[in-house]
Design goal:
Layout lengths: L1 E3 L3 H5 L9 H9 L5 E2 L4 E2 L16 H17 L5 E4 L4 H13 L2 E6 L17 H7 L8 E6 L6 H9 L3 E4 H5 L3 H13 L4 E7 L21 H13 L3 E7 L10 H18 L3
Parallel strand pairs: 1-4, 4-9, 5-6, 5-8, 6-7, 8-9
Antiparallel strand pairs: 2-3
Length: 277
Protein backbone atom coordinates (compact mmCIF):
# COMPACT_ATOMS: atom_id res chain seq x y z
CA UNK A 1 0.00 0.00 0.00
CA UNK A 2 1.15 3.49 -0.85
CA UNK A 3 -0.58 6.74 0.06
CA UNK A 4 -0.83 9.63 -2.40
CA UNK A 5 -1.56 12.64 -0.14
CA UNK A 6 -2.37 15.20 -2.82
CA UNK A 7 -5.57 17.12 -3.50
CA UNK A 8 -4.13 19.74 -5.85
CA UNK A 9 -5.76 17.99 -8.80
CA UNK A 10 -9.19 18.34 -7.18
CA UNK A 11 -8.56 22.03 -6.47
CA UNK A 12 -7.55 22.60 -10.10
CA UNK A 13 -10.88 21.00 -11.03
CA UNK A 14 -12.73 23.41 -8.67
CA UNK A 15 -13.31 20.59 -6.19
CA UNK A 16 -13.11 20.63 -2.40
CA UNK A 17 -9.80 20.55 -0.55
CA UNK A 18 -9.11 17.76 1.91
CA UNK A 19 -8.36 14.51 0.06
CA UNK A 20 -4.65 14.99 0.81
CA UNK A 21 -5.59 13.73 4.30
CA UNK A 22 -7.19 10.62 2.83
CA UNK A 23 -4.31 8.12 3.17
CA UNK A 24 -3.73 8.79 6.87
CA UNK A 25 -7.42 8.68 7.77
CA UNK A 26 -7.77 5.48 5.75
CA UNK A 27 -5.05 3.85 7.83
CA UNK A 28 -6.75 4.80 11.11
CA UNK A 29 -9.83 2.89 9.96
CA UNK A 30 -8.06 0.04 8.17
CA UNK A 31 -5.88 -1.10 11.05
CA UNK A 32 -8.93 -1.45 13.33
CA UNK A 33 -10.51 -4.12 11.08
CA UNK A 34 -10.14 -7.86 11.54
CA UNK A 35 -8.93 -9.96 8.58
CA UNK A 36 -12.00 -12.22 8.64
CA UNK A 37 -14.82 -11.98 6.09
CA UNK A 38 -17.46 -13.87 8.05
CA UNK A 39 -19.45 -14.97 5.03
CA UNK A 40 -16.38 -17.02 4.03
CA UNK A 41 -15.45 -18.12 7.55
CA UNK A 42 -11.78 -17.80 6.75
CA UNK A 43 -9.17 -15.10 7.10
CA UNK A 44 -7.94 -12.96 4.24
CA UNK A 45 -4.52 -14.55 4.36
CA UNK A 46 -2.57 -12.01 2.38
CA UNK A 47 0.66 -10.34 3.39
CA UNK A 48 0.53 -6.56 3.35
CA UNK A 49 3.40 -4.09 3.32
CA UNK A 50 2.52 -0.48 4.05
CA UNK A 51 5.12 1.63 2.26
CA UNK A 52 3.84 4.92 3.68
CA UNK A 53 3.07 8.01 1.61
CA UNK A 54 4.62 9.69 -1.39
CA UNK A 55 6.55 12.75 -0.18
CA UNK A 56 4.36 15.81 0.22
CA UNK A 57 4.91 19.42 -0.84
CA UNK A 58 6.41 18.71 -4.24
CA UNK A 59 4.91 19.69 -7.58
CA UNK A 60 1.92 17.50 -8.48
CA UNK A 61 3.37 16.47 -11.83
CA UNK A 62 6.59 15.33 -10.12
CA UNK A 63 4.61 13.41 -7.48
CA UNK A 64 2.69 11.65 -10.27
CA UNK A 65 5.97 10.69 -11.94
CA UNK A 66 7.24 9.20 -8.65
CA UNK A 67 3.96 7.32 -8.25
CA UNK A 68 4.20 5.88 -11.75
CA UNK A 69 7.73 4.59 -11.13
CA UNK A 70 6.75 3.10 -7.77
CA UNK A 71 3.79 1.22 -9.25
CA UNK A 72 5.84 -0.04 -12.16
CA UNK A 73 8.60 -1.34 -9.88
CA UNK A 74 6.16 -3.06 -7.52
CA UNK A 75 4.40 -4.83 -10.37
CA UNK A 76 7.67 -5.93 -11.94
CA UNK A 77 8.55 -7.62 -8.65
CA UNK A 78 5.25 -9.49 -8.47
CA UNK A 79 3.40 -7.32 -5.95
CA UNK A 80 -0.18 -6.00 -6.14
CA UNK A 81 -0.18 -2.23 -5.53
CA UNK A 82 -3.03 -0.69 -3.54
CA UNK A 83 -2.82 3.09 -3.86
CA UNK A 84 -4.77 5.34 -1.49
CA UNK A 85 -5.49 8.92 -2.53
CA UNK A 86 -5.70 11.68 -2.92
CA UNK A 87 -7.55 13.11 -5.89
CA UNK A 88 -8.28 11.09 -9.01
CA UNK A 89 -5.41 12.45 -11.08
CA UNK A 90 -3.36 9.71 -9.37
CA UNK A 91 -5.00 7.17 -11.71
CA UNK A 92 -3.08 8.64 -14.63
CA UNK A 93 0.19 7.68 -12.94
CA UNK A 94 -1.13 4.35 -11.67
CA UNK A 95 -2.35 3.09 -15.03
CA UNK A 96 0.80 4.23 -16.79
CA UNK A 97 2.83 2.30 -14.20
CA UNK A 98 0.65 -0.76 -14.73
CA UNK A 99 0.97 -0.53 -18.49
CA UNK A 100 4.70 0.09 -18.29
CA UNK A 101 5.27 -3.02 -16.18
CA UNK A 102 2.77 -5.44 -17.68
CA UNK A 103 1.96 -4.22 -21.17
CA UNK A 104 -1.58 -4.73 -22.43
CA UNK A 105 -4.02 -3.72 -19.64
CA UNK A 106 -7.74 -3.07 -19.39
CA UNK A 107 -9.39 -0.83 -16.81
CA UNK A 108 -12.60 -0.34 -14.87
CA UNK A 109 -13.24 3.08 -13.36
CA UNK A 110 -15.96 3.01 -10.68
CA UNK A 111 -17.04 6.64 -10.70
CA UNK A 112 -19.90 9.09 -11.11
CA UNK A 113 -17.83 11.04 -13.63
CA UNK A 114 -16.08 10.11 -16.87
CA UNK A 115 -12.91 12.08 -15.99
CA UNK A 116 -12.19 12.95 -19.62
CA UNK A 117 -11.82 16.72 -19.19
CA UNK A 118 -9.53 18.78 -21.37
CA UNK A 119 -5.94 18.91 -20.08
CA UNK A 120 -4.41 21.52 -22.40
CA UNK A 121 -3.88 23.95 -19.50
CA UNK A 122 -3.15 21.56 -16.64
CA UNK A 123 -3.60 18.07 -15.22
CA UNK A 124 -6.50 17.81 -12.79
CA UNK A 125 -8.60 15.20 -11.02
CA UNK A 126 -10.86 15.11 -14.08
CA UNK A 127 -8.30 14.56 -16.83
CA UNK A 128 -6.70 11.17 -16.12
CA UNK A 129 -8.59 9.01 -18.60
CA UNK A 130 -8.60 11.49 -21.46
CA UNK A 131 -4.82 11.70 -21.19
CA UNK A 132 -4.49 7.91 -21.17
CA UNK A 133 -6.89 7.47 -24.10
CA UNK A 134 -5.26 10.22 -26.17
CA UNK A 135 -1.85 8.64 -25.61
CA UNK A 136 -3.36 5.22 -26.48
CA UNK A 137 -1.84 3.85 -23.31
CA UNK A 138 -5.42 2.79 -22.54
CA UNK A 139 -7.69 1.58 -25.32
CA UNK A 140 -11.38 2.47 -25.16
CA UNK A 141 -12.48 -1.03 -26.18
CA UNK A 142 -10.97 -2.38 -22.94
CA UNK A 143 -12.06 0.48 -20.68
CA UNK A 144 -15.31 0.57 -18.70
CA UNK A 145 -16.76 3.53 -16.84
CA UNK A 146 -18.95 1.97 -14.11
CA UNK A 147 -21.55 3.91 -12.10
CA UNK A 148 -21.72 7.00 -14.32
CA UNK A 149 -24.57 9.26 -13.22
CA UNK A 150 -27.12 11.39 -15.00
CA UNK A 151 -26.55 15.16 -15.06
CA UNK A 152 -22.93 14.73 -13.91
CA UNK A 153 -21.14 14.73 -17.28
CA UNK A 154 -21.16 17.18 -20.16
CA UNK A 155 -22.37 16.40 -23.68
CA UNK A 156 -18.83 16.96 -24.96
CA UNK A 157 -17.37 14.43 -22.51
CA UNK A 158 -20.01 11.84 -23.38
CA UNK A 159 -19.31 12.38 -27.10
CA UNK A 160 -15.57 12.01 -26.53
CA UNK A 161 -16.06 8.74 -24.65
CA UNK A 162 -18.31 7.43 -27.42
CA UNK A 163 -15.76 8.38 -30.08
CA UNK A 164 -13.09 6.46 -28.16
CA UNK A 165 -15.37 3.38 -27.88
CA UNK A 166 -15.39 3.57 -24.08
CA UNK A 167 -17.98 1.26 -22.52
CA UNK A 168 -20.30 3.11 -20.12
CA UNK A 169 -22.35 1.39 -17.41
CA UNK A 170 -24.66 4.07 -16.05
CA UNK A 171 -26.06 3.87 -12.55
CA UNK A 172 -29.51 3.22 -14.01
CA UNK A 173 -28.15 0.37 -16.13
CA UNK A 174 -26.46 -1.18 -13.08
CA UNK A 175 -29.58 -0.90 -10.93
CA UNK A 176 -31.73 -2.50 -13.64
CA UNK A 177 -29.94 -5.78 -12.84
CA UNK A 178 -27.97 -7.30 -9.99
CA UNK A 179 -24.89 -5.22 -9.15
CA UNK A 180 -22.66 -8.30 -9.11
CA UNK A 181 -23.82 -9.29 -12.59
CA UNK A 182 -23.27 -5.77 -13.93
CA UNK A 183 -19.77 -5.50 -12.48
CA UNK A 184 -18.81 -8.95 -13.75
CA UNK A 185 -19.95 -7.93 -17.25
CA UNK A 186 -17.92 -4.73 -16.98
CA UNK A 187 -14.87 -6.66 -15.82
CA UNK A 188 -15.17 -9.11 -18.73
CA UNK A 189 -15.06 -6.21 -21.17
CA UNK A 190 -11.92 -4.85 -19.51
CA UNK A 191 -10.14 -8.21 -19.55
CA UNK A 192 -11.20 -9.16 -23.08
CA UNK A 193 -7.95 -9.62 -25.03
CA UNK A 194 -5.93 -8.15 -22.14
CA UNK A 195 -3.77 -9.97 -19.62
CA UNK A 196 -4.23 -7.55 -16.72
CA UNK A 197 -6.95 -5.30 -15.32
CA UNK A 198 -6.66 -2.13 -13.27
CA UNK A 199 -9.64 -1.10 -11.11
CA UNK A 200 -10.13 2.39 -9.71
CA UNK A 201 -12.60 3.10 -6.88
CA UNK A 202 -13.65 6.75 -6.82
CA UNK A 203 -15.64 7.14 -3.62
CA UNK A 204 -17.91 9.78 -5.13
CA UNK A 205 -19.53 6.88 -7.01
CA UNK A 206 -21.24 6.05 -3.71
CA UNK A 207 -24.35 7.95 -2.61
CA UNK A 208 -23.52 10.70 -0.12
CA UNK A 209 -25.61 9.16 2.68
CA UNK A 210 -23.12 6.25 2.64
CA UNK A 211 -20.01 8.26 1.73
CA UNK A 212 -20.28 11.91 2.79
CA UNK A 213 -16.52 12.50 2.93
CA UNK A 214 -15.68 12.88 -0.76
CA UNK A 215 -14.60 15.70 -3.03
CA UNK A 216 -17.75 15.69 -5.21
CA UNK A 217 -20.73 14.20 -3.33
CA UNK A 218 -24.05 13.25 -4.94
CA UNK A 219 -27.26 12.08 -3.24
CA UNK A 220 -27.57 9.18 -5.67
CA UNK A 221 -25.01 6.48 -6.41
CA UNK A 222 -23.92 2.98 -5.61
CA UNK A 223 -24.65 1.79 -2.10
CA UNK A 224 -21.85 0.96 0.31
CA UNK A 225 -22.74 -2.72 -0.04
CA UNK A 226 -22.55 -2.54 -3.84
CA UNK A 227 -19.07 -1.02 -4.00
CA UNK A 228 -17.83 -3.57 -1.44
CA UNK A 229 -19.23 -6.32 -3.62
CA UNK A 230 -17.30 -4.89 -6.59
CA UNK A 231 -14.11 -4.86 -4.50
CA UNK A 232 -14.47 -8.50 -3.54
CA UNK A 233 -15.16 -9.58 -7.13
CA UNK A 234 -12.15 -7.60 -8.36
CA UNK A 235 -10.00 -9.35 -5.77
CA UNK A 236 -11.11 -12.83 -6.81
CA UNK A 237 -10.17 -12.21 -10.44
CA UNK A 238 -6.65 -13.39 -11.24
CA UNK A 239 -6.17 -10.69 -13.87
CA UNK A 240 -6.63 -7.80 -11.39
CA UNK A 241 -3.13 -6.35 -11.15
CA UNK A 242 -3.83 -3.37 -8.86
CA UNK A 243 -6.44 -1.00 -7.46
CA UNK A 244 -6.63 2.54 -6.18
CA UNK A 245 -9.01 4.42 -3.89
CA UNK A 246 -9.66 8.05 -4.85
CA UNK A 247 -11.28 11.17 -3.42
CA UNK A 248 -11.52 10.19 0.27
CA UNK A 249 -11.96 13.64 1.81
CA UNK A 250 -11.83 13.56 5.65
CA UNK A 251 -12.63 17.29 5.86
CA UNK A 252 -16.26 16.45 5.03
CA UNK A 253 -16.57 13.01 6.58
CA UNK A 254 -19.12 12.21 9.28
CA UNK A 255 -17.85 10.09 12.17
CA UNK A 256 -15.25 8.56 9.84
CA UNK A 257 -17.92 6.77 7.76
CA UNK A 258 -16.18 7.27 4.41
CA UNK A 259 -12.74 6.35 5.74
CA UNK A 260 -14.27 3.16 7.14
CA UNK A 261 -15.87 2.44 3.78
CA UNK A 262 -12.50 2.90 2.02
CA UNK A 263 -10.91 0.53 4.55
CA UNK A 264 -13.64 -2.04 3.92
CA UNK A 265 -13.13 -1.76 0.15
CA UNK A 266 -9.48 -2.72 0.58
CA UNK A 267 -10.37 -5.48 3.08
CA UNK A 268 -12.89 -6.98 0.67
CA UNK A 269 -10.35 -6.79 -2.14
CA UNK A 270 -7.81 -8.62 0.02
CA UNK A 271 -10.40 -11.25 0.95
CA UNK A 272 -11.02 -11.75 -2.75
CA UNK A 273 -7.30 -12.25 -3.39
CA UNK A 274 -7.15 -14.79 -0.58
CA UNK A 275 -9.92 -16.75 -2.31
CA UNK A 276 -8.52 -16.72 -5.83
CA UNK A 277 -8.71 -20.07 -7.58
Amino acid sequence: MIGFPYDEGALRNHGRAGSARGPDEFRKAFYKLTPTKHSLLQDAETRIFDAGNIKQKIKLEFALSIMESAVQNLLKHGHIPIIIGGSHDLSYANFRGCHGALGNCGAVNIDSHLDVRDYSKYISSGTAYRMLLDQETLMGAFFVEFGIQEFANSREHLAYASKRAVQIFTLDKIHSQKNSEAFTKAYRIACHKTDNVYVSFDLDSVRSSDAPGVSAPTPTGLTAEEILECAFIAGTENKTAMIDICELNPNYDVDGHTAKLAAMIVSNFLAGIANRQ
